[in-house]
Amino acid sequence: MREIVNGRFHNSLSKNNLPMNHQPVEGFSKLTKQGKIDWLVNEYLEGNTDYQNILNQYWNENADLQKLHDEFSENTISNFYMPYGIAPNFLIDGKLLALPMAVEESSVVAAAAKAAKFWIDKGGFKTTIINTKKLGHTHFIIDVESHKLQHFFNFKLKKKLFEATESITANMRNRGGGILEIKLVDKSAEMPNYYQLKASFDTVDSMGANFINSCLEQFGKTLKEQISFEESFTQEEKDSLQVVMNILSNFTPDCIVRAEVSCKIEDLKDDSGISNEEFARKFKQAVTIAEIEPFRATTHNKGIMNGVDAVVIATGNDFRATEACAHAYAARDGKYSSLTHCTTDNGIFRFWIDLPISVGVVGGLTNLHPLVKFSLALLGKPSAQELMSILAVSGLAQNFGALRSLVTTGIQKGHMKMHLFNILNQMGATEEEKQHFVTYFKDKTVTHHEVINEFNRLRAQ
Ligand code: MEV
């Protein structure tokens, strides 16, 4: 039952404190796919079979492929498609690449392609891998004197942690990676008796989340075991140990790549009509504003992540992890700031990004999802480091495109041109009508209002 409380709708609760609008479901995951759909349609969609048809339309007719997709996740009832586009002409470290981009936002792929074309005859994008270290922690509580714990760690525990994880790390060590370092970190000034085992890892071509978490869970067990044997601790001290959790950190400031472009300001030709010098000056001002103003930095970095995430998704990587890391890095000095930077010294325009990003080209979806396989093949089967470079370039290119528009024509001109088809599709325009609109807006800025006016005029004829 719905009732109005303080001017807002509230679902009233039954005696057992559950809302009365729907009944909870038992064993949903055990229902067949059809059973799940029937339940949802009846319970939430008033039995309307149109909704059932929407779900059916998106099933893949190839049963094996559909099963593969179903098994990526749980309780799957359909597929959620996104456009998969290509931004060609990316000259990256001397290689010409076509970037696969999975993104729903109109104009992201077009902006990337435009930026790639802009830089192709100016030396293209150059990248440097600064470091590839990933991090994880065993977070624990123990009531002992810090120096005593440090002594135990240095002379006993550290060696045991490496030994106890030998079988887990064997494969990774054969591939050139493994655990790089383990440290004891005293955090007790921030929370009473809080310490960490902080480990760094090289996971070579994999993103390494499972590997890192397996090592850390073993650290937690070994820590408990070794403390229980340790004669220098009293029983009370031993009993105070609590291993709170063992988990990788998605903040990887030491797994970082730089991508950059540069050219003489006199070569910075922009077709909007402003001079090269004015373009360079306004562009640098826009970057500086993002460096000092968090409100602008958030949108600026969001634009960068338009480019990064689209390639992250197309290559089967975890965009939530890359987002979390990028924004944590952007705030690393205590104030949220720009991920890109620009200088215009001595007649040279230089624009770059330092992007911390942890991705893989083996494991996870990479060998399973057919489009991920396609993306990686299209990119020439890159190593994880090469993929880091490609992702940083994609973010830098996207930011270049956005700032270029913002400081010249504004973004709406290009954005609305790409959005035009969304508006027309919403209005049910025919193919012939769509063509009319492309011609109509050839030399005009698209606005929602103008599309509707022209659409009504056309239909009235
Ligand atoms: C839109 O998705 C992204 C932009 O707003 C980024 C920016 O303002 O720099 C265009």
From TrEMBL:
Keyword set includes NAD: yes
Catalytic activity line of the entry: (R)-mevalonate + 2 NAD(+) + CoA = (3S)-3-hydroxy-3-methylglutaryl-CoA + 2 NADH + 2 H(+)
Enzyme nomenclature, EC number: 1.1.1.88
Entry keywords, A to Z: NAD, Oxidoreductase
Record flagged with keyword NADP: no
Annotated GO MF terms: hydroxymethylglutaryl-CoA reductase (NADH) activity; hydroxymethylglutaryl-CoA reductase (NADPH) activity
A GO biological-process term: coenzyme A metabolic process
Transmembrane spans: none
Pathway given in the UniProt record: Metabolic intermediate metabolism; (R)-mevalonate degradation; (S)-3-hydroxy-3-methylglutaryl-CoA from (R)-mevalonate: step 1/1
Protein family: Belongs to the HMG-CoA reductase family.
Protein name (Swiss-Prot/TrEMBL): 3-hydroxy-3-methylglutaryl coenzyme A reductase
Species of the source: Chryseobacterium aquaeductus
